[in-house]
Amino acid sequence: MNAIISISRRSFIIGVASTAGGMSLGFNVPFIKPALAEGAETAPEINAWVVIRPDDTVVIRIARSEMGQGTLTGLAQLVAEELNCDWSKVTTEYPSPAQNLARDRVWGNFSTGGSRGIRESHEYVRIGGAIAREMLIAAAAAEWGVPASECTARMGMVTHAASDRATFYGQLAAAAARMTPPANVTLKDPKDWTIAGKPLPRLDTADKLNGSQVYGIDLKLPNMLNAAIRACPYFGGKVESFDAAVVAEMPGVRTVVQVDETAVAVVADTWWRAKTALDALPVVWDEGPNRQVTSASIAAMLEEGLGANDAFIGAEQGDAGAALSAGGRTVTATYAYPYQNHATMEPMNATALYTPERCEVWVPTQNGEASLAAAAEAAGLPVQQCEVHKIHLGGGFGRRGNFQDYVRQAVSIAKQVPGAPVKLIWSREEDMLHGAYHPTTRCRLTGALDADGNLTALHMRISGQSILAAVRPEGMQNGMDPVVFQGLVLSGTEGTLGYTVDNLRIDHAMRNPPIPPGFWRGVNLNQNALYVECFMDELAHAAGVDPLAFRRKLMAKHPKHLAVLEAVAERIGWDTPPAAGVHRGLAQIMGFGSYVAAAAEVSVTDGQLRIHRIVAATDPGHVVNPAQVERQVEGSFVYGLSACIYGECTVNGGRMEQENFDSYEVMRMAEMPDVETIILPSGGFWGGVGEPTIAVAAPAVLNAIFAATGKRIRTLPLKNHDLA
Amino acid sequence: MARLIVNGTPRDIEVDPDTPLLWVIREQIGLTGTKYGCGVAACGACTVHIDGAATRSCVLPVSAVEPDQQITTIEGLSPDSSHPVQQAWLALDVPQCGYCQAGMIMAVAGLLMQNPNPTDEDINAEITNICRCGTYNRVRAAIKLAANGGEATQRG
């Protein structure tokens, strides 16, 4: 992956001397206003998506961000499929957000979240590839004086069989770039794919094996300074004062700056020196209005919402209230889901260069356009005088999309040292204390069972935090946050409830504690799946019915939900007894457009949980790279089970208590179960892959733990519970 | 002033003696393959070899490194990504975001030097690096691939 250098007039080679190993760490950074209209210096752009060099290298433009999820390779496969090029010649590059703006957003949306990278853009990137192919054919036909309809394109070559002529794309590219793009192209049927749909190796692996992959934190620019930052640890608090003189003479320190109302930063020659000085800097905080807020006070706030009269209704069928008070048998349970931090391995960072005329930012971002907007706002410059260079992300998980706090901070610092690039790196502690936390909610579920053990009514009351209310209020619908109901609604393509319950009500009492919430990989599907799927297990046991059989009876009208559930049940051998001491649990959900299920095998010995085996099934409609789907599904269990077992940020005195991985534990190798992935693409729709499976990890395991111990864990994380 | 031998090359570096080796490698020497993840030796992203032993460099003051000790970073593990661990990683396409992988590869290379054929229990005990993307199962498979000289094996 390179930044687009062909459309930059000049570029700096940023690198370091090679080591004894002889490895070059050169990094090519476009450093000046992109001159888009000038076209290519080194190779012709066939269209926005495809550049072909004379040596036949095909450069495919990728608008979405690569953060490990494999979107880069998948999107390249889709373009290459329609382009009919030689996959071994494919490389990729990111267009920049300012380039997108200057070209009327020819690359569409840059936002990379909600598992949308491929499912939202598959059509227009394939069209881009197909148009480029037709232009290459047209160029060849024109050169040979034959009808284009007699020419074919395959493996990076156009052939005219009748005259036995053939030419490589690299020779045609300059002429093709001048052809008029066809108004219409026909996309291939996925069943005819030869590049897309195949488990091709990732395009971005090699650089990750030898230290040459450049992340935002690794950026080097000439005369660059480094900044360490501390924001008020109390939510809602501010900087009252700080005594810069105390650290001004410390080694390497250039300046101490107030970043904004809430944060101070030390700028030094190296980051370590900046951090050392920051640690010594006396800062007095205006602790703000939330010093009395604790996890307990937040829990009480949410508990109140569980019984409140007013609530937004997300799903309703029949009359759940009447059916539940009709006097039959009812089951009630209350669940709780804590705050969690994204904890990307690469801490937040951004590098900014400000002059009164121009601001440039280099940043690992899930949304380059949001980064650009944040940079322009913080710089106080028109967006046309700003640029953002997207750098590879060391994890995103939702932290680096909607939230651009680190960009604003970096620009604010850079404004105070104009002319010098400043790299701002958050310490892990800063990262843990200033997250955009997975929101906290609680849920009370009440179900009614008839004499035959059938579920006749269900009320699900969610109480807790709205992400949209805090960060995207324009998405609210008459005061309601529709995203709260992920996976629970009755219609739509994003995530419907997989059960038919004659009398159903799912509602939300919004209770917003003063803790900043955010989109956290899986978002609200995580807790919603936990609530529904653990409670289904509770109902099945109350009814004395096998959990799979109990669900099946409610899923007749939901064949895709049922298909993935049946698949994991079959693979794990649900109908046969597990090994001695091993117990099983199931879960299914639909979210981000895909149907997912998991079956878990666990044992609990002397209170020690061991997760032996996970079987997971996914129906994302179409699959662009099955190997990549497998990786995302496996990884989902690390993320989802880390949340299940350890994930908890607790609030005390108006701030988070966890500051690093020693108090915010995550799963490691020793705890990782085997994961078997079943991919069941049923076609006809495009679902996401990066997130949905996370949601079934915890409920499958918790249901298995119940089978093993008879203990219902209704409050995450597991580490707070004694399983003995 | 500190004298360090990094990837076989002696370096004289002006640096505060308390500076963690990690930041000397990243900022003074300019080798950024070794990563900062936590600063408290909890995640392993900063793992390098010192005289062949995998070491978390984020809490090791540079003054604690002897002038004759050999420091190897991911950039020096092999000249051309040909180390068996790198080759196994490539064969199984292990990395996702990749940020933790340099530390992971260095930890595994260190383990295999001491224990050429580690059991699952050995791996569980020795490879405690954090990966948030969730590459653990591929890491385990790649360790076994590397240990077997490139031939795949079953877990167990």
UniProtKB/TrEMBL annotation, chain A:
SMART domains: Ald_Xan_dh_C
Superkingdom classification of source: Bacteria
Domain Aldehyde oxidase/xanthine dehydrogenase a/b hammerhead: 210-289
InterPro entries per record: Ald_Oxase/Xan_DH_a/b (IPR000674), AldOxase/xan_DH_MoCoBD1 (IPR008274), AldOxase/xan_DH_MoCoBD2 (IPR046867), AldOxase/xan_DH_Mopterin-bd_sf (IPR037165), N-heterocyclic_Hydroxylase (IPR052516), OxRdtase_Mopterin-bd_su_IorB (IPR012368), TAT_signal (IPR006311)
Record GO terms (molecular function): oxidoreductase activity
Official protein name in the record: Aldehyde dehydrogenase
Originating species: Mesorhizobium mediterraneum
UniProtKB/TrEMBL annotation, chain B:
GO MF annotations, alphabetized: 2 iron, 2 sulfur cluster binding; metal ion binding; oxidoreductase activity
CDD domains xrefs: fer2
UniProt xrefs under Pfam families: Fer2 (PF00111), Fer2_2 (PF01799)
Hydrolase keyword on record: no
Keyword Oxidoreductase: yes
Residues in 2Fe-2S ferredoxin-type domain copies: 1-77
Keywords assigned by UniProt, alphabetized: 2Fe-2S, Iron, Iron-sulfur, Metal-binding, Oxidoreductase
UniProt protein name: (2Fe-2S)-binding protein
The organism's taxonomic lineage, starting at the top: Bacteria, Pseudomonadati, Pseudomonadota, Alphaproteobacteria, Hyphomicrobiales
